[in-house]
Backbone:
Protein backbone atom coordinates (compact mmCIF):
# COMPACT_ATOMS: atom_id res chain seq x y z
CA UNK A 1 0.00 0.00 0.00
CA UNK A 2 1.42 3.35 -1.03
CA UNK A 3 1.05 6.34 1.27
CA UNK A 4 1.50 10.04 0.51
CA UNK A 5 2.77 12.81 2.75
CA UNK A 6 1.96 16.36 1.69
CA UNK A 7 3.65 19.52 2.87
CA UNK A 8 2.91 23.08 1.95
CA UNK A 9 5.01 26.20 1.86
CA UNK A 10 4.77 29.73 0.54
CA UNK A 11 6.88 30.95 -2.38
CA UNK A 12 7.88 34.58 -2.77
CA UNK A 13 9.54 35.95 -5.88
CA UNK A 14 11.13 38.95 -4.16
CA UNK A 15 12.26 39.99 -0.70
CA UNK A 16 9.78 42.88 -0.83
CA UNK A 17 6.90 40.39 -0.98
CA UNK A 18 7.69 39.02 2.48
CA UNK A 19 6.16 40.48 5.65
CA UNK A 20 8.50 43.11 7.12
CA UNK A 21 9.58 40.91 10.06
CA UNK A 22 10.60 38.14 7.65
CA UNK A 23 12.47 40.65 5.49
CA UNK A 24 14.39 41.82 8.54
CA UNK A 25 15.22 38.23 9.54
CA UNK A 26 16.39 37.28 6.04
CA UNK A 27 18.49 40.44 5.80
CA UNK A 28 20.16 39.53 9.12
CA UNK A 29 20.92 36.04 7.78
CA UNK A 30 22.37 37.56 4.61
CA UNK A 31 24.66 39.80 6.64
CA UNK A 32 25.68 36.87 8.83
CA UNK A 33 26.69 34.84 5.75
CA UNK A 34 29.28 37.48 4.91
CA UNK A 35 31.09 36.66 8.16
CA UNK A 36 31.18 32.89 7.65
CA UNK A 37 34.52 31.13 7.96
CA UNK A 38 34.44 29.02 4.80
CA UNK A 39 37.98 28.82 3.37
CA UNK A 40 37.56 25.21 2.20
CA UNK A 41 34.08 25.00 0.69
CA UNK A 42 33.83 28.70 -0.20
CA UNK A 43 30.13 28.22 0.60
CA UNK A 44 29.02 30.94 3.02
CA UNK A 45 25.84 30.22 4.99
CA UNK A 46 24.09 32.70 7.25
CA UNK A 47 21.23 32.11 9.63
CA UNK A 48 19.12 34.31 11.85
CA UNK A 49 16.76 33.17 14.61
CA UNK A 50 13.85 35.28 15.83
CA UNK A 51 13.41 34.84 19.57
CA UNK A 52 10.03 35.26 21.28
CA UNK A 53 11.08 38.60 22.85
CA UNK A 54 11.85 40.03 19.38
CA UNK A 55 15.63 39.66 19.49
CA UNK A 56 17.40 38.28 16.45
CA UNK A 57 20.41 36.01 16.99
CA UNK A 58 22.62 35.26 14.00
CA UNK A 59 25.04 32.50 13.12
CA UNK A 60 27.19 31.47 10.20
CA UNK A 61 29.03 28.34 9.16
CA UNK A 62 32.40 27.76 10.78
CA UNK A 63 34.62 25.33 8.89
CA UNK A 64 37.68 23.48 10.07
CA UNK A 65 40.32 21.64 8.11
CA UNK A 66 39.57 18.64 10.32
CA UNK A 67 36.17 18.11 8.70
CA UNK A 68 33.56 17.59 10.20
CA UNK A 69 34.77 19.58 13.19
CA UNK A 70 33.07 22.75 11.96
CA UNK A 71 29.48 23.74 12.59
CA UNK A 72 26.58 24.80 10.38
CA UNK A 73 25.10 28.29 10.53
CA UNK A 74 21.71 27.00 11.63
CA UNK A 75 23.07 25.23 14.71
CA UNK A 76 25.34 28.16 15.59
CA UNK A 77 22.31 30.50 15.54
CA UNK A 78 19.88 28.14 17.31
CA UNK A 79 22.35 27.13 20.05
CA UNK A 80 23.34 30.78 20.58
CA UNK A 81 19.71 31.91 20.75
CA UNK A 82 18.89 29.20 23.27
CA UNK A 83 21.98 29.97 25.36
CA UNK A 84 21.36 33.74 25.35
CA UNK A 85 17.58 33.43 25.88
CA UNK A 86 17.01 30.13 27.71
CA UNK A 87 13.44 30.97 28.71
CA UNK A 88 12.36 32.25 25.28
CA UNK A 89 10.81 30.30 22.41
CA UNK A 90 12.51 30.23 19.02
CA UNK A 91 9.87 31.60 16.67
CA UNK A 92 11.48 31.58 13.22
CA UNK A 93 14.74 30.95 11.41
CA UNK A 94 16.01 32.40 8.13
CA UNK A 95 18.75 30.66 6.17
CA UNK A 96 20.62 31.90 3.11
CA UNK A 97 23.89 31.18 1.38
CA UNK A 98 26.25 32.29 -1.34
CA UNK A 99 29.21 30.64 -2.97
CA UNK A 100 32.44 32.14 -4.21
CA UNK A 101 32.38 29.58 -7.05
CA UNK A 102 28.79 29.36 -8.32
CA UNK A 103 25.40 31.06 -8.12
CA UNK A 104 23.00 29.87 -5.43
CA UNK A 105 19.72 30.73 -7.12
CA UNK A 106 17.67 28.10 -5.25
CA UNK A 107 16.65 28.14 -1.58
CA UNK A 108 19.23 26.46 0.67
CA UNK A 109 17.63 24.02 3.13
CA UNK A 110 19.27 22.93 6.39
CA UNK A 111 21.15 19.63 6.48
CA UNK A 112 19.69 16.64 8.31
CA UNK A 113 21.60 17.31 11.54
CA UNK A 114 20.35 20.91 11.60
CA UNK A 115 16.80 19.82 10.86
CA UNK A 116 16.93 17.48 13.83
CA UNK A 117 18.26 20.22 16.11
CA UNK A 118 15.59 22.67 14.94
CA UNK A 119 12.75 20.21 15.43
CA UNK A 120 14.01 19.62 18.97
CA UNK A 121 13.43 23.33 19.71
CA UNK A 122 10.03 23.17 18.04
CA UNK A 123 9.09 20.21 20.26
CA UNK A 124 10.54 21.90 23.36
CA UNK A 125 8.64 25.11 22.67
CA UNK A 126 5.44 23.22 21.79
CA UNK A 127 4.82 25.39 18.75
CA UNK A 128 5.86 25.55 15.11
CA UNK A 129 9.05 27.38 14.12
CA UNK A 130 8.78 29.13 10.77
CA UNK A 131 11.66 28.55 8.35
CA UNK A 132 12.57 31.06 5.64
CA UNK A 133 14.94 29.78 2.93
CA UNK A 134 16.73 31.57 0.11
CA UNK A 135 19.86 31.28 -1.97
CA UNK A 136 21.79 34.42 -2.86
CA UNK A 137 19.16 35.12 -5.52
CA UNK A 138 15.87 33.65 -6.66
CA UNK A 139 12.72 32.53 -4.94
CA UNK A 140 12.17 32.52 -1.19
CA UNK A 141 10.44 29.54 0.43
CA UNK A 142 8.63 29.93 3.75
CA UNK A 143 7.77 26.78 5.68
CA UNK A 144 5.38 27.20 8.60
CA UNK A 145 6.94 24.42 10.66
CA UNK A 146 10.24 22.54 10.83
CA UNK A 147 8.06 19.40 10.74
CA UNK A 148 7.50 20.19 7.07
CA UNK A 149 11.22 19.62 6.52
CA UNK A 150 11.00 16.29 8.40
CA UNK A 151 7.57 15.00 7.39
CA UNK A 152 7.99 11.58 8.99
CA UNK A 153 8.90 13.15 12.34
CA UNK A 154 5.31 14.23 13.00
CA UNK A 155 3.79 11.05 11.59
CA UNK A 156 5.71 8.58 13.74
CA UNK A 157 7.51 10.47 16.49
CA UNK A 158 5.12 12.99 18.01
Residues:
Amino acid sequence: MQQTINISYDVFERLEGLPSDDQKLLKAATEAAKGAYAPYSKFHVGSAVLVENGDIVVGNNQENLAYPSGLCAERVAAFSASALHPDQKLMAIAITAFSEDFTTDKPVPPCGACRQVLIEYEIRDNQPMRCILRGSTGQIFVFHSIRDLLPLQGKFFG
